[in-house]
Amino acid sequence: MSITRLPKITLEEAYAHPDDVARILADNEELARAAHGGGITPEYYRPIFEKLREFDEVRLAGMDAAGIDHQILSLTAPGIQIITDPVTATAEARKQNDFLAEQVARHPDRYSAFAAVALQEPENAVNELRRAVVDLGFKGVMVNGYTNTTDAAHGRYLDDPAYYPFWEALCELDVPLYLHPRPALTGGLTLYEGHPEMKGATWGFGAETAAHTVRLLLDGHFDRFPTAKLILGHLGEGLPALLWRTQNMFDLNPFDKKINKSLPEYFADNIWITTSGNFSDHALTNAILTVGADHILFSVDYPYADNAKGAAWIEKAPISELDRRKIAHGNARALFSLA
To answer: Would you name the residues annotated as active-site residues?
Structure first.
């Protein structure tokens, strides 16, 4: 008797424009700079780049082998957020969205997309968000942490009042923002001095993104935008394990901040987390107990993580079959209105 493989949908799956990949791979110094910015080695990054620019045989075959029915694609980090010239950033976001729409159109049953936006120009970011969702059919937006302003040492976080119209548009369109990691601002890198292995996904990415999210939570951002939808990768960047202590210490030391709900309530109402690149039974169990299975979505983090490894894990993770189906595909179908 044959057994049908568990269907899966993934949504932290990266791409890079083939022209950018060709330029970087042709220059070892450029590759080294890109790798350094992500806290990884050039040797690790080179084969990743090869996969980032490919949308056909290799990517689709890997999906098929893992039982992944559908990917939601997004521009790889740091994406548009690292560009310091606002006009250039706005033009690049539009270019990337047009290119990604073409790839989705070639395989519409297998791919959807998150938009790239240039928050360097908030008003134009609203316009591009609307264009991407309404005209191109994108499912939401991917933002890579803070957005650089005048130089790489300065940035604005998503609770900045300049971004309120952008959040209003997200709520009106009823689409989520996926908050993806990037390294901390330059002023915070002294912690990692002499330890480049800590700066990226090994540690620094999660710490930076968790802090960004807590900043939104304690700023009352989800009281201001009660229907906003935020997605975090890597099983919540460690936050499910830290929610109780964070809530307890905030209750004792709120300073001038006041929020209307508890942190777990905001997770129940406004925040979803994905399994991207964190295939841990313990982390998943903790997330289910803290966040609830209805707000957990399967993802791989391709090509930085392996489709086969992620698929094998979720198919055998020690959770109920009902929760397994929700996490693997059911929650994503509901959140993104996928068939």
So the answer is: 301
